[in-house]
Structure formats: C-alpha cells, structure tokens
Amino acid sequence: MIILPILISTLVGAALLVSSLSEHVRGQQGECRALHTIVGGTLSLSAIGAVVASWTTKGSFMLLELFEKLPVCFQVDELGRLFVMVTSVVWMAICFYSFRYMKHEGEEKQFYGFFLIVYAVLIALDFSGNLITMYLFYELMTLTSMPLILHNRSKESVMAALKYLFYSMAGAYLALFGIFILYRHCHSLAFVAGGSLDPVSAVEHRTLLLVVVFLMLIGFGAKAGMFPLHAWLPTAHPAAPAPASAALSAIVVKCGVLAVVRLVYYVVGADFVRGSWVQKAWLWLTLLTVFMGSMLAYREKVFKKRLAYSTVSQVSYILFGLALFTPQGFTGAILQLVGHAFAKCALFMTAGIFILRTGKTRVEDYEGIGRQMRVTLWAYTIAALSLIGIPPTIGFVTKWYLAQGALMAQLGALSIVGPVILLISALLTAGYLLPVTMRGFYPGEGSTIQAQKEKPDMMCCMLVLMAFLAFVLGMFPGTIIEYTQSFLTALM
C-alpha cells in the first residue's frame, strides 16, 4: 500500500517526460484535455492511495538493504500521516489550479511529469522509516523539484534553480556529515519516539554530538529557509511559475521542517538538546530569521518576492515552536505547519492570477484590482489575515500556542524576546500584506489598472478552497490539537 501510490505517480510522470521530448502541448486543445485527465486522474489515485495507506498500514516495510544495518525502509506513524494528508490536499489543489495557468507558460508535459514525480518523492519522504531513507528521498526531492523552477529556461530561472541546488546540496552535505557521526553513537537510525541515542555515548561524547546536531539543524534548515542558508527562497520564487512557487512555499520547504523534527525528536531525542547551547543558538537563529524575513518582505516591491520573504519568516515560526521543547510550542508548530501550507498556497495562487490577468508583477501595479477581481482579492485577504494571526483564522491559534510555549519554557530572556519578536513580525506581516487589499478595493484617484475580467474558473475555485481551509481550521482547531497531543507525550 505504501509503494503503490509512489510507483503510480513516478511511472506516469516519467512517461510524460519521455513523451514531451518530441511533442509540445501549446495550442493543442484535445491533447491538453487528455493530458489534464491523465495528470488529474493519476494524482487523485496516488493521493487517495497514500492517504489510505497512512491510515491502514501497520508496522514497517524494508525495500532493500544498502549496507549492514542500513536498510531503506518505510513506516507509518502519526507525524508522517499528518504530512501525507497536508501534502496530498495542497498538491491536488495546485494541480487543478495549474491546468489553466500552465497553458500560459507552455511545456505542460514537462511540468506535469516532474510535478507527479516530486509528489511521489514527497510521499516516500513522509513515509521514511529511518534517517538514511529520509536523506535519500530528501536529496531526490531537491533534484526532482529543481526543474519546476527552471521551467521557462530563462536566464533568471536557470540562475535561480542553480542557487536552489547549491544551497540545498550545501545543507544536505552538512546533514550527511552528521549522519556519519550519529551512526556510531545511536542504537539505530530508525525513527523512534524519544530518540535512539546511546546513553553512554551521549555522556562521553556530548560536546561532539551537540556540534553535530547543530550542524545538521543548519543543514536541514536550508530547505526550510532558516538563516544563514535562506537566500535561495527569494530568488527561486519569482523565477518559477506560480504553481511551482505555491508548491515550493507550501510543501517543499516543510520537508526541511520534517527532517528537523525527525532528527531532534526521533533520533537524538528532545532531552539531549533541551537546555543545551544548541537549543539557545537554534532559538536565536529562528527569531533572527522571523524578524529578518518580515523586514525584507515589508521593503520588497515585487509581489512574489515579497511572498517569498514572508515564507522565510513564517516557516521559522514552526522551527521556533519546535526549539522550545514544550507541549504548547510543539502544538503551535504543528498548527503553523498546517495553517501556513494552506494560507501561503492561497497567496501564491493569488499572485499567479494577478500576473496572468494583468501581466504585472509589482505590488503598486495592483491598485484598484478589486474592481475586476473581487472574489480573488477577498480570498487573498482571508489568507493574509491567517498569516498575520487575526482571529478566527488558524494563524491566531498558532501564535497563541507559540507565545504560551515560549513563556512556559523558562528560557530567561528568550521567553520574553520570543513573543515580542512574534508580535513585531505579525505587525510587519500586516504592513506588507494588507496594503494589497486596501489599495485593491480602495484605489487612489486616477487608478486605471487594466485586467482581464474575473472568471469562476478552476484557478479561482482552488484559491477559495485554500483560503477557506485556513479560515475554517481556525474556527475548529480541536481536531489538529487532539491529534498532535496523541503522539506528543512520547516525544517529550
């Protein structure tokens, strides 16, 4: 059940890539419909299979053994199940959204071939049963998602893709170095709640292991956009097509978060890091990233680049919650993970619609756009309010738990500085997101924006769905909170 959805999506994606070598979809309406049917059907089948497998599969499954005691294996646990659910919902929404948008970009077979393969890799990553398996698919995810960035093959997109590759590989090599060391000091590299670090080694080699854990946090943090390996994000998003930007910001960056959770809570254990210099350094890095990302987003004028800087800031909210090592902080991190996936997906969908309908990319170019695109701008506003943390959206519940977790962590100045930085970041988020709404609905005199008339098409429907999920989860967050608490005790 675990392998089937991965195989289906991979094989169909590979078949599309082979067929795209000699054919182009642009302008061929019948082939477009057939392609959309194949892609939509394959992804739906794979997503249903992945979700069903996450709820019905018990135990672990070994695919092969690389070396002695180094198997490539899969297992289903509560964390992996959550990631599979979020990934599948968002990936499906982006897929249906892209059917209209990618007609404008062209080379649809190439895009959807890699899009399906990346989904398969993400599912394999979520179901990984040990650190080696996760690292294998973590690297594959970088290689397979890179073509989504350089889709149009412009100089800007090629340079952005290379930057993404360089930063991701640099971070991954830091993590690989750590894996070499941990292999000698853990009972196994399997994911076990509470960790599997050898107690004797944890005492005798504590200094070395703390350095290793810190380097791995920096390495995996590159994918999550954490300082200092964050610079690929604001470069990659403006160069990529809007569906690819939505996928990168909503899901791909969360793979860095997943890797961090697996490392800290399932390999070395929270008790080993709690109270150490690694925890404090990690917290300061996350707060620096939150503040820096918000400030840069506030100053940025290109809309997609502004949203990219916002992702740098918002994903570090998750890392901040994880680094607190309190139940409230961990719960807030999980809520932020889910809420940000839906809200940021909606914001990049909005950016794609704006670009497609107006041909403009800068924030000031959208003044008065609410006259022609009322539904789109309202959906954008709801998603923006969620990122800011305005009740009753999921963002408010997230920030409440994160602030409570910081205050209860008893970390001295960090327990006060943390909530203050979160508050300042929320104000900056309002400062760079809400002006689009205000000037869109209430433009100044002489505003003459030219935009195609809004249509109730699939792009608009998927945007509304993502904004609706960000809103309704804030109204009813109990399900996610209870689910998180069901496995939280074993991790702490």
3D structure, described in words:
With 492 residues, the protein is mainly α. It has a domain at 274-492. The protein has helices at 3-19, 29-56, 78-105, 108-126, 131-149, 155-185, 199-204, 206-223, 232-239, 242-268, 270-273, 277-299, 303-324, 327-358, 374-388, 394-408, 413-441, 458-475, 478-491, and strands spanning 60-67, 70-75. The protein has a two-stranded antiparallel sheet with strand order 1-2. Strand 1 (60-67) and strand 2 (70-75) form a beta hairpin. It is globular. The model is unreliable at 21-27 (pLDDT under 50).
Give the helix/strand class.
Answer: mainly alpha
Low-confidence stretches: 21-27
Calculate the terminal CA-CA distance, rounded to whole Å.
31 Å
Helical stretch count? 19
Question: Roughly how many Å is the radius of gyration?
Answer: 22 Å
How much of the sequence is in beta strands? under 5%
What order do the helices and strands come in, and which of them pair?
Blueprint: H1 3-19, H2 29-56, E1 60-67, E2 70-75, H3 78-105, H4 108-126, H5 131-149, H6 155-185, H7 199-204, H8 206-223, H9 232-239, H10 242-268, H11 270-273, H12 277-299, H13 303-324, H14 327-358, H15 374-388, H16 394-408, H17 413-441, H18 458-475, H19 478-491
Antiparallel strand pairs: 1-2
